[in-house]
Hints:
The structure is a homohexamer of 214-residue chains.
Chain A: H1 6-24, E1 53-54, H2 56-63, E2 72-76, E3 90-96, E4 101-106, E5 112-118, E6 120-126, E7 132-138, E8 142-145, E9 150-154, E10 161-167, E11 175-176, H3 177-182, H4 188-194, H5 199-209
Antiparallel strand pairs in A: 2-3, 3-10, 4-9, 4-11, 5-8, 5-10, 6-7, 6-9
Helix pairs in contact in A: 4-5
Keywords (chains A, B, C, D, E, F): Apoplast, Glycoprotein, Manganese, Metal-binding, Secreted, Signal
Main location (chains A, B, C, D, E, F): secreted
GO molecular function, one term (chains A, B, C, D, E, F): manganese ion binding
Amino acid sequence: MVSMNYYSLVLVVVALVWALAAVAGDPDILGDFIVPAPMVGMPPTNITSDFFTYTDFLAAKEYMPWPPQYFIVIKANMEVFPALNGQSVSYDMLVFPSRYVNPPHTHQRAAELLFVQSGALSVGFVDTAGKLYTQVLVAGDIFVFPKGLVHYQYNQGPNPATAFSAFGSAAPGTVNVPASVFGTGIDDAVLAKSFKTDFWTVQKLKAALTPPPK
Amino acid sequence: MVSMNYYSLVLVVVALVWALAAVAGDPDILGDFIVPAPMVGMPPTNITSDFFTYTDFLAAKEYMPWPPQYFIVIKANMEVFPALNGQSVSYDMLVFPSRYVNPPHTHQRAAELLFVQSGALSVGFVDTAGKLYTQVLVAGDIFVFPKGLVHYQYNQGPNPATAFSAFGSAAPGTVNVPASVFGTGIDDAVLAKSFKTDFWTVQKLKAALTPPPK
Amino acid sequence: MVSMNYYSLVLVVVALVWALAAVAGDPDILGDFIVPAPMVGMPPTNITSDFFTYTDFLAAKEYMPWPPQYFIVIKANMEVFPALNGQSVSYDMLVFPSRYVNPPHTHQRAAELLFVQSGALSVGFVDTAGKLYTQVLVAGDIFVFPKGLVHYQYNQGPNPATAFSAFGSAAPGTVNVPASVFGTGIDDAVLAKSFKTDFWTVQKLKAALTPPPK
Amino acid sequence: MVSMNYYSLVLVVVALVWALAAVAGDPDILGDFIVPAPMVGMPPTNITSDFFTYTDFLAAKEYMPWPPQYFIVIKANMEVFPALNGQSVSYDMLVFPSRYVNPPHTHQRAAELLFVQSGALSVGFVDTAGKLYTQVLVAGDIFVFPKGLVHYQYNQGPNPATAFSAFGSAAPGTVNVPASVFGTGIDDAVLAKSFKTDFWTVQKLKAALTPPPK
Amino acid sequence: MVSMNYYSLVLVVVALVWALAAVAGDPDILGDFIVPAPMVGMPPTNITSDFFTYTDFLAAKEYMPWPPQYFIVIKANMEVFPALNGQSVSYDMLVFPSRYVNPPHTHQRAAELLFVQSGALSVGFVDTAGKLYTQVLVAGDIFVFPKGLVHYQYNQGPNPATAFSAFGSAAPGTVNVPASVFGTGIDDAVLAKSFKTDFWTVQKLKAALTPPPK
Amino acid sequence: MVSMNYYSLVLVVVALVWALAAVAGDPDILGDFIVPAPMVGMPPTNITSDFFTYTDFLAAKEYMPWPPQYFIVIKANMEVFPALNGQSVSYDMLVFPSRYVNPPHTHQRAAELLFVQSGALSVGFVDTAGKLYTQVLVAGDIFVFPKGLVHYQYNQGPNPATAFSAFGSAAPGTVNVPASVFGTGIDDAVLAKSFKTDFWTVQKLKAALTPPPK
C-alpha cells in the first residue's frame, strides 16, 4: 500500500515536473548538469564526484582477454553514464581483433571523431553523392566520419587495434546497415528489387544476418 | 579599375569565406526569408511572388507518361526552390509504377511524413533496436518515418501509386543504402565480413548496383 | 484506492522521469521516437506500426459532404498524431468551398509549404517591410509562406479547392488575426487608436468576430 | 591585375554565396563575437570597446522634446548595433505620450520582456486559444509577452510613459497587425470575408492605414 | 494515505507526462507558454495575467535604503519568475554604491546587454585571445558583454549607479570567478601553480574569499 | 577584364558578407560536410580523404621530448582541422609533466569529456552553487566537466600523464582564468575589491601572470 501522505506525493510530483520543465525551455539544459531523478519519499540524491566519473573502459581493459577474440564496442554514453545527459558529448572504445570489421553503419545524431590508439585501421565513408573516401590510419591518427553518412572500420593487419571515438551527442545512435536491412524481416521482394538481385541471394543474406530467435 | 593583385583577391575572398563559415547567428534565420545573392555590379534582385512559387510538380504531372515507366522522385527542396532556404521544410513527389520499390534509405536531417495520394503502398522502417514496423497504406493515409532510420516504400499492387512526402528541413539529405554500400567500391573483404557472406555474392551485388562509368 | 506497491510507484515515477530527461538534453530528441507515457502499473505500451499511421484525412474525405459547405482544416499535428512529437514535421488538409477564405493568420513556429491538390487558390503574405506578395495557384502548384508572417488563402473560383500544407514543426501554432484582435475583448480605445478608426467601427467588427458565449 | 572575365567573377562570387547560404556550423556562433566584414584590400578592422557600446538611447533622450509628441520606438538590435550579431539579445526603448498606443503586433523570433521605467501602461496579449490577458503596469513592473503572440501596450494616463523591452534575439522582428492587414493592398473581398464585414468598412480601414505614396 | 482513485492517478501522471513531452521535441517550446505543474487531484491552475507580471524590482526600489549600502543584484529569471520558462529572456537589476564592484564573472548561457539607468560604470571584458576591452558608461549607455567571457562592472564615482541587464536566456547562469577559484577549497598547490604565486598568497586570498561556515 | 570600380567591388562584397552574417538556415549544416572555399578562378578544390584525416597528434608524439618538460595542449579543432566545421566535435591531447597543472579555466561552448591515457590526474570543477567536485583519475578513467564551469587538472604524481579530451563543439573555446583576470591589465582597484585583497597582492599576481611585451 502507498503509505505516504497525500500532500507529500503532490509535492514530489510537482518538484519532479518543475525540475524537468527547466530542462526543456532553451535548446540546451538550463542548469549546470541534470541530476538523476530523486527517489520518491527519500532524501534528495547526494551527487558526488563519482557521478561524473566513468570506469568501465578501465574495467574492460583489465578483464579483456588479449589478443581479443571478438570485435568489441564499449560505450560511454548517457545510457550508461548519466552525467552526460545534457552535455552533448560521449565516447566509444573499439577493440578490433586482426581481420575484424565494424560493419557499415550510420549515427543519426552525431559525427564520429575516431582516434587510433594502437594498431592500424582501414576506414571509409560514402557521401550522399555516392563518393567513397578511404584511408589507412595508424596509431595516433584521427579521422572524422561526417554526421549521418554510411561508414566502416576494418583491421586488415595481423595485430589487434584499439580506437576511441568521440561524438558530439550524449546519445549518437547507431543504425547497423547489414542487420537493419537483412536481419529484420523486410519482405524478400523489397530486398530483391532494392539490391537488384534474386530471391535466393536475399534469402542467403537473411539467413546469415538474422539473429537467432531467443 | 580593380588594381589589386590576383592573389590578394584570392586571399581576401578566402578569408571572408572562412570567417563566414564559422558564423551562425541565432539558430534560425534572422530575417523574413533569405534573398538569393544579388548579382555583382547589377541592381539588387527584384524578389516577386514567383520566388515563393514552385511549379515543377505541375510540369512533371503534365509531361509524365501514364502509367509511369520508372520510379520517379521530384524534389521541392532548397536546391531547386531557393525560397525554402531557412524555412526548414520541403516536399518530395513520389511516383511508383506497379511493383516498383523505393529502396531502403535514410534521411540524415529530417523525419519523413508521407501522404499517399493515389494507389497503395507497403512501407516499413527499422528502429535502432532492430524492430521492423510495416504498414499497408491506401490513398489518404499518412505515415511518419522517424528521423535517421532505414525505411522503404513498395507498390505491391497492379496500379501506379503517387505520394507526397513532407520533411522538416529544407535539405533533408538522402543516403541510398544499396547504392552506398554496394555501388561505391568498398573493399570486397569489408563487405563479405560485414554481410557474413562470400566474395562471389559481394561481387554479384556490386555488379548489379555499381553505376556504369560515364 | 491506490493498491500498487510503494516500490512499484517509485520505479514507475523514476522510469517516467528518466524517459523524459532523455528527451531534453540535446536540442533534438535523443531516441528514435517519443513513446507515449506508459500506463502506471500496466505493462509497457506496445508500440506498433499503427502508432506511426494517421487515417483522419482519409476518414474526413469519405464522410465530408461534397461540395463542401464550410472552410475546413483537418490537422495532422502532434496533438492528434502523437508519433510526430520530436519529428519536427506536420500536415494540414484544407478544404475551401467556392468563395471561402482562410483569414489572415500567422504560425509562430514554422513556415507553411502549401500544395494545391485541386481547384485554384489566390494566396498572399506580407513581409515585415509591409510588402504584399500575391499569387494565383492552380492544382499542382506549391507556395511557401515564410515563418511568422501574416498570410491568407482565398478560393475565388466557382469550384471547391483542396490543399495540403506541410510545416517544419510538429506543433506550428496558429494566430488567427481577426479573431485575436476583434474577438477577444481588447479595449475599444486600444483598437480604435490602433486601426485609426472610430468606436462604432470597432464595435461593429467586434460584434461580427466575437464568438457567442457558450 | 585581375585578369579574369567579369562574368566569371560574378559566377564565382554567386557560387560562394550560395555555398555559404547553406552553412550554419554549430547552432551558436563559434567565436567570441562576430567581426564586421573587413574592408577588401584594407587592413583588418580594429575592433575597440566602442564596437560593444551603443549610445543612441542616450542621444534620443537628450534631443527628444518633452513631453513627447509621438509614440517612439528606438531600437538597439543587430541592424543598428552590429556587436549584437550572434549574441541573441536586444533592446527597444519605448516612449508613449499620454493616450498613445503601440498597436497589436507580433515578434516572430522572440518573447518580449517589458520593464516600465516611468508612467503607467495598460498591456495585453492573446494566446492561441483566444484568451486575452490584460494588466495595468506601473513604473518598476515587468511583464512578459510570450513569443509570437499578438500583444499591445497603451498609455491610458495623463503623463508620458517610458519602457524598455528586452528580447532573446538580436533580430526579434515585428509584424504590425493593422498595417500588415489593412495597409498593404490585400484584396477587399479577402478582408471583408475575413473580418465578416462589408466592403465599405474595409475601404474605410484601408484608407486610414495605407501609408501615403512616396 | 493516498485516497485518490487509481485511474485518476493514472490520468494525472499521463497528463503531466504529455504536457512535458510536448515541451522537448523541437528546440523551442511547442506551446504559447509553459504552465506550472497543475496540482495533483485539484482543478487545473487558473493562469491569469499576474503569472506574466513580476513586481520584485518595484518592491526592491521601494524598500531599499538610499544611498545603497551594498552591491545588490535582483534577478528576474525563470527561477523567481516562472513565466519566463521557455521564453529565452531575463533581466537583472544591479545597484552599485559608490566604489563598489561586481567582481569578474561569466554567464554560461547568455550574452549580457547592460543598460545604465543612473550614475556611471566602468566596465570591461576579456576575449579568449586575452585582449581587455574597457569602457566608461554614463546613464543611457548600453554595452554588450559577449557570451561566456570574463567581465566586470565598477562604480568608480561618488554617486550610486543603477543598471539593468538583459540576457538571451531565462537562466543565464553565473560563475563568480574569485569565489569559484578561491572560495571553494581547491588545493593550495593547484592554485599556487596556476597563479604562479606562493602558498602564503593563496592562503591569504582563500581566507578573504571563503564563505564562513554556516 | 574587371571594369567595375574598386569601391563598388568593396561595397558589393561587404554587402554580401553582411547579408550572410545574418544567415543560419537550419541549426545544423545542410550538406554532408563544409568544403573549404574553392580558389577564385581555379578548378574546385579536390576534396580527398586526407581532408578528413588529422596527423598532428601522431607528429607531436614522435617529436616530443620524453619525459615532457612543459604542460602541452595539442588541439584537433576546426581551426587546425577544417573538416570538423559543422560536425560539432573536437579533441585536445594533453601532456602533463610531473607536478604540472592545467590552470582553472572554462570552455564557453562545450562540456569536456576527459580520458586519462597514461599516468594519473587530480581533477576538479566548481558548480554555480560554489560546490567543488574533486577526483583522482588513473589511466583508463573518464571524467566529464559540465559545460561552462571552472575546472582544472593536476598531475600530482612523479610520472608524466597524458589525456585526451573530447568536446561537443568543433570550437569549444577556452577562457584561462588566471591569465584573463591577472594578465590583461584589469584595473588594480577592480581586482583588489573583487578578490578582497590589497594592491600589493594584486600587483604581485599581475607581475607573475602578465605576458612579457613582444
